[in-house]
Design a protein that fits this description.
Helix content: 40-55%
Protein name: Translation initiation factor eIF2B subunit alpha
Organism: Pocillopora damicornis (Cauliflower coral)
Subcellular location: Cytoplasm, Cytosol
Order of helices and strands: HHHHHEHEHHHHHEEEEEEH
Structural class: alpha+beta
Pfam families: IF-2B
Shape: extended
Number of strands: 8
Largest sheet: 4 strands, antiparallel
Number of helices: 12
Keywords: Cytoplasm, Initiation factor, Membrane, Protein biosynthesis, Transmembrane, Transmembrane helix
């Protein structure tokens, strides 16, 4: 069943039974699509509990939500469009692109999401090849966490660069990312080669996700930091490499901050006492007048 047939079936349900709600008609349309393609039984059970399904809309459809990549995503979008025109709620399974990430900084949530997604992809190595269902579940988990990390990436990259080069820098990063999008399709196609399976692209994607999650730890935290206007301001600004909890810098035993004008890292203890000296061995104003990060 293609998009037009699905929309026609949805409208037919509304015409045949004027008292039918939009949610019930949408579920019946989805069931018809599934019956003609895969016939998954769990959707039939969900339709019998339509009152519970009707409550899923508020829980799953939010600002920034994304419908998971699927062969029937366009059908779902077409039905969603028709239901929206009638100003009624309608239920689909979606994943939220990212939870509220403002209270935990940028680096650590991105690192956690990417590592979980990468580990989920790499776990296919221990799953037997004939267990395609588990492989799909792991791919579903990996794709979901990578999607959540992607929503942080644009915000974080725009905060890293000063205003004078922000457009150029973000555009350059986006262009390089598009090269990865192009290569991703060919990496997936490698699974069709003799002797390879879907495990190969999953391992490649998992390794790249793990690498990206670890590399971001070398970048400074930008939450609650000043947005620099020029490169000179960036060079003079303190860079914080610690953790954020509820929008506050965590007072951990050792918190790292690169001081401006000095090629060294200041190590600050829990009590706020500086451990270590300047790179040149003296107490110049460039370092000592900088605020301690505790």
């Amino acid at each position: 069943m293609d998009n037009e047939e699905a929309v026609a079936f949805f409208k037919k349900c509304m015409v045949d039974d004027p008292g039918m709600s939009t949610a019930v008609a949408a579920i019946q349309t989805l069931l018809e699509v599934m019956n003609q393609n895969s016939g998954q039984l769990y959707l039939k059970r969900a339709a019998s509990a339509r009152n519970r399904i009707a409550k899923l809309c508020d829980a799953f459809i939010k600002d920034g939500a994304t419908i998971l990549t699927h062969s029937r995503s366009r059908v779902v979008l077409e039905i969603l469009k028709v239901a929206t025109e009638q100003k009624k709620r309608f239920n689909v399974y979606v994943t939220e692109s990212a939870p509220d990430k403002s209270g935990f900084g940028r680096r650590v949530p991105f690192c956690v999401f990417m590592i979980i997604g990468g580990v989920a992809c790499l776990l296919v190595l221990i799953v037997p090849k004939d267990e395609e269902r588990f492989i799909r579940i792991l791919a579903f988990i990996g794709r979901g966490f990578v999607t959540m990390s992607f929503s942080i990436l644009y915000l974080y990259s725009s905060e890293l660069y000063p205003t004078s080069i922000r457009n150029l820098a973000v555009g350059t990063c986006s262009t390089i990312a598009r090269l990865g999008f192009i290569l991703a399709s060919y990496i997936v196609m490698l699974s069709q080669l003799p002797g390879l399976s879907v495990i190969f692209p999953m391992v490649v994607f998992g390794a790249l996700a793990l690498t990206a999650g670890l590399v971001i730890l070398w970048l400074p935290e930008t939450l609650n930091s000043n947005m620099c206007q020029t490169l000179d301001e960036t060079n003079r600004q303190n860079e914080y490499y610690g953790f954020i909890w509820m929008e506050r810098r965590v007072n951990i035993p050792f918190s790292f901050s690169r001081s401006p004008g000095a090629a060294h890292v200041r190590v600050v203890s829990n009590e706020g006492v500086q451990v270590g000296e300047d790179s040149d061995g003296d107490d110049d104003d460039t370092v000592d007048n900088a605020p301690l990060i505790t």
